[in-house]
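Side project, low priority. Logging it here so it doesn't get lost.
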Amino acid sequence: MPIHEVFAYLRLRDAAAAIDFYARAFGAREKFRLTEPGGRIGHAELELGGTTIMLSDEYPESGIRGPASIGGTSFTIHLHVDDADALIARAVAAGATIVRPANDQFYGERSGTLRDPFGHEWNIGHEIEKVTPEEMQRRYDAMFPDE
């Protein structure tokens, strides 16, 4: 059976604030949200550069917890952009913290990593050169000369 699309689905504390942050930091556009009478967001969809990101508030009673509740995240979302430095600066101004400053990378990208106020990490990068997989491997191997 073919897979038609893949969506990142973020679980977090205070989804309404996260939607606002992602709009300010990354230019996300809210497509829609489903909100309980008490205000908890059960599902929302944001568009980032033609891609949909889904998110919801935490539902601890169902085992749905975000980075703030579990003490971190185990993945990073990569945004490939025209100017990584500019988007990193915009996200920091909106409230993100820098995990790894932007630098030129061996794989042909300038990139850095941010942590949003909700605990999710974002790798922001732009291409600085075309690098074949073979050249990437050669450069990667060179990083471990004694192994």
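Brief comment: The beta strands are 8-12, 29-35, 41-48, 51-57, 76-80, 97-104, 109-115, 121-127.
Revisit when time allows.
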